[in-house]
Amino acid sequence: MSTMTSRRVIALMIALTVVAVTAFGAGTTQTTAPDAPRRVSVGIFDRGLIPSEEGSLESNRWVDWINEQTGLEVTWVPVPRWTAFDAYNVMFASGSAPDLIMEYPRQRFETWRDQGVIQPIDDFIERYSVDYKAYLERHPGILAWTTFDDGKQYFVTSRRFSTANHAAWIRQDWLDTLGLSMPTTTAELLDVARAFTNNDPNGSGRRDTIGITSRVGLFEQMFLVSERFYVEGGRLVPAILSDRQRSLLEYRKAMFDEGLIDREYVTDTDQQRARRLWKTGQAGIYFAQTVPTFYEELMANQPWAVVVPMEVVSSPYGRNGWLQEPEYNDHKVAFNTRMEDPEAAIRLIDFLIGGGWEPTRFGFEGVHHEVVDGVRVITDNELFRREVFWASIDMAFVKDYEITPEYIVAAAGDDPTLRAKAELEAAAVRKSMSVPYRRDYPFLPTNEALSLFFAEFDPRASEIITQVITGGPTRTAEWGINLLREEWNRRGGPEAERIVNEWFDQNRALLGF
After folding, report:
1. Residue 357, SS3?
2. What is the DSSP letter of 474?
3. 11 versus 369: which is more confidently predicted?
4. How many helices (H) and strands (E) does the chain have?
5. Are residues 450 and 504 in the same domain?
6. Is the predicted pLDDT of residue 2 greater than 50, yes or no?
7. Residue 465 and residue 480: Cα distance in Å, rounded?
8. Do 454 and 347 lie in a common domain?
9. 308 with 181: CB under 8 angstroms?
10. Per DSSP, which regions of 123-177 are E strands?
11. Which of 139, 167, 244, 265 sits a CA distance of 20 to 30 A from 466?
12. For residue 269, which of 83, 141, 405 has the smallest C-alpha distance?
């Protein structure tokens, strides 16, 4: 009959005075109220992926479909992906923030909780939810992520379909042209970046290439400073004050000074320039995610390009894997304190986790995919890319599935383009998972003083790091690390260390220490 339980149908009949029940594509039932639709607005990441012929993030086929299936009037509010935190803060200040706030980093929700702009959701889940409540019962580990130090939940989330996240992509054809081996250390990576920049790997006869274009923080991962704290000598020690951070500053400064990375990276806040340099064949290494979203455009511009996932490289401090996410560190969606209809928000969440995520993520069976041996096989790559892919990343912000490298390849079917792209993704996932990523704790404690400290310290630290990388000979790594330590102490860093280590001591057994 339906993937939705009879309990949910009964609950919705009581709460919404149901007058009609119809089936929808994902197999979940739809309920329609006799009066005007209930409204809820959702912040959604604007990644610049939607084709113009599909409309906009505010108005498209999936907006219409979700509204039809839920009986709600869901408004999607685009938020720039790479500056989302700042954009939300502006909207909160102006009173224009959407009802549902989508972001990733848990600490940002702590900041918003402390500011009073988001609210606890436990009562709403208890009163209105059936499907998400059942999902929490099946995955109780989620509660550790969603529950703050006051014992209340502040966002909804779901399991990641894969914990592999980051990848480094490299032009194998450039390596072959220049007679180079795959880099396996940071020193070798520096040499390869120099060769890609200076030795004409594309055969143009001009110096028109750069070594690395970057979207994500693989530099920090290489030097073991991508987490705020690491356990050293039995206590949590801030990574940004470490000798590893000094070495990273020296490394990135050398890259910048020699022109091995894009010198306009500071102003490339939306990362569009980094993507463009890679997709047009101007860069030899691309720090990005395991999903090769660039594939079609790169092949259109450089059909001879041979791209492979790069090895995880070792630094002088050891070999740390590319970022692997914790199991429940996925989209997080909080409730704006000014929300007028939390029941409508729960209806949308229940709809998605109860099955509505599936068409939004994979399209419709018989149109965008066929199910073969339990695997959804994309039947028309171009149709899927145009109609589904751009929506699949964020609109199904809670979902319930898992994929493996084998599944990724099987799902591509016989389409040569889609299969080549899937094989790249599967290879990147395997590469990412082949070396453990060091994370000594799943997340830091929720604490108002801690949140306030990092909200003030992080922007200043970013300024100092940028000054070192771009500031020429007077802004040395030594100058930078000394200033970082000075700012840390001046702004209350020792108290932050005391807070996290007190929490660490109280939870050593839980954290495996």
Report:
1. helix
2. G
3. 369
4. 23, 17
5. yes
6. no
7. 7
8. no
9. no
10. 166-171
11. 167
12. 83
Residue in the structure block whose two tokens are 């996925």 = 330
Per-residue pLDDT, 30: 39
Q: What pLDDT was estimated at residue 358?
A: 96
Q: Rounded to an integer, what distance in angstroms lies between the CA atom of residue 454 and that of residue 293?
A: 32
**0.90 exceeded by the pTM?**
no
Structural domains in the chain (count): 2
Verify that 170 and 61 share a domain, yes or no. no
**CATH number of the domain enclosing 476:** 3.40.190.10
Rounded Cα distance between 98 and 43, Å, is 6
Same domain, 91 and 64: yes
Same domain, 250 and 115: no
Same domain, 186 and 288: yes
* Cβ count near 45 (within 10 Å): 21
Instruction: Give the pLDDT score at 35.
Output: 66
Residue 317 lies in a domain: yes
Angle between helices 131-138 and 342-351 (to 10 degrees): 60
For residue 336, give the amino acid letter. N
Degrees (nearest 5) of the Cα angle 499, 501, 502?
Answer: 65
Q: The tokens 């990135």 sit on which residue?
A: 252
- Cα separations (Å) of 87 from 74, 268, 334, 349, 489? 20, 16, 15, 23, 29
**Element containing residue 137 per DSSP (H, E):** helix 131-138
Strand, coil or helix: what is 448? helix
Domain extent, residue 67, equals 6-160+329-369
